[in-house]
Amino acid sequence: MENSQLLVLILSSIVKVLFIAHLLIIGVMAMIWSERRVSGWMQDRLGPNRVGFQGILQPIADGIKFLFKEDLIPDHVDKPLYVLAPAMVLIPAMVTIAVVPFGSSITVLGHEIPLQIADINIGVLYILAITSLGVYGVVLGAWASNNKYSLLGGLRSSAQMISYELTLGLAIIGVLMLTSSLHLRAIAEAQGAYPWHWNFLIHFPAFLAFVTAMFAETNRLPFDLAEAEQELVAGYHTEYSSMKFAMFFMAEYMHMIVGSAVTVTLFLGGWHFFGLENIGGPVWSGIISFGIFFVKTAIFLFVFIWVRWTLPRFRYDQLMNFGWKFLLPITLTSIAVTGTLWITTGSRLVVGIGNAVAGFIVASIVAGLLAMDAPKPAMQDSDNQLTPTALDAIE
Amino acid sequence: MNAEQILFILFGAVSLVGAVAVISFRHPIYSALSLVVTFFAQAGLFLLLGAHFVAAVQVIVYAGAIMVLFLFVIMLLNLGTLSVKGAIGGKLKGFAIILGILLAIEGIYIATNVLNDTAIASAQPATASPETTTYHIGELLFSKYLLPFEVTSLILLAALIGVIVLVKRSPND
Questions:
Q1: Which pTM does this prediction carry?
Q2: Quick check: A143 and B29 CB within 8 A?
Q3: How high is the ipTM of this complex?
Q4: Torsions phi, psi of A280, nearest 5?
Q5: What whole-number distance in Å separates Cα of residue A76 and Cα of residue A144?
Q6: Which of B60, B68, B75 has the CB atom closest to A125's CB atom?
Q7: Are A123 and A99 in contact, with CB atoms under 8 Å apart?
Q8: Chain B interface residues facing chain A, Cβ-Cβ under 8 Å?
Q9: A383 lies within 8 A of chain B by CB
């Protein structure tokens, strides 16, 4: 009995790891295709539509092109770190998915297999830990390239990631307080089947702050200062070509997919949707729950693309002000209000209303204060800007 | 030899190699990265002890935040390769030798006396269930260790205010 359970555990883990890893890679290809097509649609043009039906094989053509390009390593780079950096970007993006529950469970041959690679008891902390490592690849790639544009991009990116990580971590605390567990599965299960019980309504300000911080962590527009084309050529991956560049590129999309999956788990009810996930037998309910999770993640990924082609890029001081002076107070308020109301009333409804009201009040106050001491358009107060400091670095 | 021992030796070896590499590399970026490797191996050791929370905090705080700031500063100052002569100089050399000898004696003492002690060899690690370590740490912080906890937060607050005061000083002062 012991042995057969161990065998089932090992076999099911291998299958799950292979399945999820391949799904991630295919997801990246699908995302690249849909980003190009959606951006084309939003800008009233066509986008790639030649390779395969509606251009759906375009990512494969791109991948083949990357593979067959010459793997160029410039003379002036720091070679060990230059080669290591793309992997250090890609791996943290990929391994985060290991703790995300992507469905309820499937019963095969009498064994109940949870649809999650590892349900570790510090799941949320694991995600935060791995997310905080993503910055290494960017910083090292930028530094090893030995190029001023790269270095500037890397410095911007690391400052941005450190700042927004704080918001990312603090925004989750309210959720943890109400669930009193760090298990991602427990958090998803605690939210129940109905959207009005899900965490994004109970912790609405924290949810918005979390999503914003996640955009910043993925280096996407409107937070893509690290690779602002108009200023820095391509930022930290200027010196990279062929498959090494492709790894940076894939890591960005993988970050988006994993980030969406985490958001769906923490705030949008995981695999629940109006009890639909319980329909069918022990096998079908698992597959349906995975389908629900998949669709929710896909919708959230569309929001990523949508935002990219809607919002312009922040200026650097705006970015820092927004992170430290706007998002941080909101998440801190959310923690205080959630804790106080949860202890005193114990009602999720009260916590939700309290959070929304307090979030609105604090957001208005902070926005007012920020607007009052916003620098003049001529940027005369340049000592308080962060950009010149970063510029000083390369002199 | 069971899996736990193999992992212990692995993490211990990686941690030692990383620590030696920190002081062996001439370039500060490589040194900083070696330190990250050491922190990771130590997080692995914490995991083996069942202290999952501590392991996660080790990675989040040390590897994820402090070392990133180190790298940031190294890159901002654009430090080049350090030469041993320039970095340590003549003054500290004698001091370093004395401290090194003391440390070596300490190490030999531990290796010969303490590790042979049967009481330590047979001691069992504290059996805190991994399911509840986070809960227990929280409970201890707010009951038994409340005063040290509050003192720590006050010290951190003082440091925070100090930093803001230093940064906010206008150039006209």
A1: 0.83
A2: yes
A3: 0.77
A4: 85, 180
A5: 9
A6: B60
A7: yes
A8: 29, 33, 36, 52-53, 55-57, 59-60, 63-65, 68-69, 71-72, 75-78, 130-131, 134, 171
A9: yes
